[in-house]
Amino acid sequence: MPVIQELIRTESDGSISFGNYQLEAKAKLDNFESSGDLYKVKTFAEITKLERNGMFVYESVPGTAVENFTETDAGVEFTAEGDRDVQITVQLEDDAVYEVFVDGTAAGTMKTNMSGKLNFSVELSGGASAAVRIEKK
């Protein structure tokens, strides 16, 4: 999976792809419109962050490239690529329970905090990618 050279884009299925962990210097793109929402992405080797309509959506430390990011009432799905292990935070429903799957394997049941953030780790190295699925229980 190649990094997202344009920093963020809308895919043909309506999902979005964003991030470029290969950048040495911070890059950002603001006011990217997709499906009626405005997105802002900040990305480089150390962090990738996505906001929608001024609200937090996704963050990874270190940075990642994310493809086919989709959100529904049932959860979130995306593929993350990076050159080392990452800590990912996503915004979900406040105080709710979710099952996290990485490459089809259950990584555990987790509860969001009072602000709806869910934190988990994904093992990546050398540009490897992992499919992530988070389902509400």
Structure, briefly:
The protein is an all-beta fold and 137 residues long. 0% of the residues lie in helices and 62% in strands.
Features:
seven-stranded antiparallel β-sheet; six-stranded antiparallel β-sheet; 137 residues; 62% strand
Blueprint of the fold:
Layout: E1 8-10, E2 16-18, E3 27-34, E4 37-44, E5 47-52, E6 55-61, E7 65-72, E8 75-82, E9 86-91, E10 97-102, E11 105-111, E12 117-122, E13 128-136
Antiparallel strand pairs: 1-2, 2-7, 3-4, 4-5, 5-6, 6-9, 7-8, 8-13, 9-12, 10-11, 10-13
Q: What report would you give on this structure?
A:
A hairpin with a 5-residue loop joins strand 1 and strand 2 (16-18). The protein has one domain: Chondroitinase Ac, Chain A, domain 3 (Sandwich), CATH 2.60.220. It has strands at residues 8-10, 16-18, 27-34, 37-44, 47-52, 55-61, 65-72, 75-82, 86-91, 97-102, 105-111, 117-122, 128-136. With 137 residues, the protein is mainly beta. It has no helices and 13 strands. It is globular. The protein starts with 7 loop residues before the first strand and ends with a strand. The mean pLDDT is 95. The strands form 2 sheets. Strands 1-2-7-8-13-10-11 form a 7-stranded antiparallel β-sheet, with no helix packed on it. Strands 3-4-5-6-9-12 form a 6-stranded antiparallel β-sheet, with no helix packed on it.
Structural class by SSE content: mainly beta
CATH topology: Chondroitinase Ac, Chain A, domain 3
Shape: globular
Instruction: Classify the helix fraction into a percent range.
Output: under 10%
CATH architecture: Sandwich
Output mean pLDDT. 95
**CATH top level class name:** Mainly Beta
Largest sheet: 7 strands, antiparallel
According to DSSP, the number of beta strands is 13
Q: What gyration radius follows from the Cα positions, in whole Å?
A: 14 Å
For the largest sheet, list the strands in their spatial order.
1-2-7-8-13-10-11
In DSSP terms (H or I, runs of 4 or more residues), the helix count works out at 0
Amount of beta strand: over 45%
Task: Kindly give the count of domains.
Answer: 1
Head-to-tail CA distance between termini: 30 Å
Order of helices and strands: EEEEEEEEEEEEE
The low-confidence parts are: none
